[in-house]
Amino acid sequence: MPLPPRWVRRVLVAPAVVVGAVILVTTLPVWLLVATGLTALVPGYLRLPRVLWMVTFYLLWDSAALVSLFGLWVASGFGWRVRSPAFQRTHYVLAGWFLRQLFRQARWVLRLRIDVEGDVAGGGLAGHPIVLASRHAGPGDSFILVHALLNWFEREPRIVLKDTLQWDPAVDVMLNRLPNRFIAPTPFGAPRRVPAPSLTDQVGQLAHGLDANDAFVIFPEGGNFTAERRRRRIEGLRREGRTAMAARAEAMRHVMAPRPGGILAALDAAPDAGVVFVAHTGLDRMVTVGDVWRELPMDKRIVMHGWQVPRDEIPLGREERIEWLYGWWERIDAWVAARSAALADGSAGREPAA
């Protein structure tokens, strides 16, 4: 569905979520009885009650966040100072707190576990901003990365996201008050012949002025990995005459060929930033709503691995940087293959304190 204008999201969608949360909570005992009665008919241990509880919690979580954000809007002079440094920091603290509550519930109800390997935070780059380039596979990887950056590594993320995430009212309000950028193919209601703003320009603007504890988060694949998207990306490279890149993309089985424009623009706009590449596995098979339902209750172990690259190790020329980016994506592809096999064997990783 196309994303409606901001005033529709604020006046209609956000209140509807709050009303829906109130209705669901007041009728929760009835729904729990129904879910418990039907649970024997559905595979998975207590799948229906667990899913019902997570849906209820998420609606309450979203509603509580909206109420808190409304309070901050009033306190800022009805939006007058909402983008001032003090209120920006308050919003980051609030986002971290709400994400901690969300992942505590996910651990308890869905038995979702996040293990971290390597250097996702760019610890060796302390005192410098980082550009964090992540694999994109499965729903929730944006949430997981932001949770890790805010609550484990004390970084303030700036994120390039798809505009459709603004259907979630709390995400919509919170992230539009912070320095993030939602990317849309075309404006709402505009004919398809109207071009979208340049991704390179938008990314460059967002990456400008990063400070020492900022983390610029981007997903160079441009979308969740699917076999069909991977195939189209390879065909596109061939049409552009990049046959060598197409061959390398075809050899990568677990990731799509990265689109270099965004990360190159970020590196140009943030000349002091190092780079952290992040791979993860555990959500790979959950792309559509049907996939998510089949995997619930999750009982998942998500493993994230980070590699840091100091600024002086980043090539200077555009073509050299594209070659360098492809090399890292090949490394990520190899890691995903190896880690998927290790997870199937039940090997353990480590998890930082939340």
TrEMBL record:
The keyword Transcription does not apply. It comes from the Bacteria. Residues 130-283 form the Phospholipid/glycerol acyltransferase domain. Keywords: Membrane, Transmembrane, Transmembrane helix. The chain crosses the membrane at residues 12-32, 52-75. SMART domains: PlsC. The keyword Transmembrane applies. InterPro entries: Plipid/glycerol_acylTrfase (IPR002123). This is Phospholipid/glycerol acyltransferase domain-containing protein. The lineage of its organism: Bacteria, Bacillati, Actinomycetota, Actinomycetes, Micrococcales.
